[in-house]
Amino acid sequence: MNLADRIQALRKAKGISQEELAEQAGVSRQAVSKWESSQSTPELEKLILLSDYFGVTTDYLLKGTEPIPAAPEHRPDARIFTVVATACNFAGLVIAICIWVAWQTAASVAVGFVLMAVGCAVFAVGQYVGVQKQDAKEFFALLNVWPLTLMPLSCAFNMIDGVLGGFYWQLMPIPELSNSLLSYCLCWLVYLALCIGTDIVVWGRRKERCSSEK
């Protein structure tokens, strides 16, 4: 086992991705990929940083003179936080729509935003305390762009549509068909383009990252 193998083994034992290790080391993910494929060697400063982060000596990294720690640090999986956060965000959107349908009150938007704020806070906690943070971040972006985008876009659309149309408007969790069918359809097209475009970009980057870490 050489230096590249030891860095990769330590990273996997800690349950983190190349990107997460890159953040800790203050380098790019490509740099970590090159370390693990023996295309380059970390500088002395980075070796010291890696030894401190993994809890091993520089002698082990360079020569393999001590065993890999048998029990890696136990930290929660950030993906669990993402699941809970996603449930909160979708619940916020659904509850906001249900309140609006039942009572037609702008308070529906406030309730939805509060629940979504809780969901985003749960996700942030997972990014701070958990492992597999990059996976969690990607899945959060893929799923939550849909509920998190709809209400702000709807509120903005209803306000602009009302001002341009010269009629009374309300904050709503979904777009209101009140001015013209054309503007209403345009709002939904913008929403779909934002969400689908985000998912395509995030999924493409995920595939690229996964293929580089094989």
Structural class category: mainly alpha
Uncertain spans:
none
Distance between the termini: 17 Å
Number of strands: 0
Mean pLDDT, nearest integer?
91
Radius of gyration: 23 Å
Strand-residue fraction?
under 5%
Q: Write down the overall geometry.
A: elongated
Biggest sheet details: none
Helix content: over 70%
Q: H/E order of the elements?
A: HHHHHHHHH
**Please, how many helices?**
9
Q: Key terms for this structure?
A:
single chain; 214 residues; mainly alpha; 9 helices; 75% helix; elongated
Polypeptide structure, described:
This protein is mainly α. The protein contains nine helices and no strands. It has helices spanning about 5-15, 20-25, 30-35, 45-55, 60-65, 80-105, 105-130, 135-165, 180-214. It is elongated, with a radius of gyration of 23 Å. The relative contact order is 0.11.
In terms of topology, how is this protein built?
Blueprint: H1 3-14, H2 18-25, H3 29-36, H4 44-54, H5 58-63, H6 78-103, H7 107-129, H8 133-165, H9 181-213
How would you summarize this macromolecular structure in one to three sentences?
The protein is mainly α and 214 residues long.
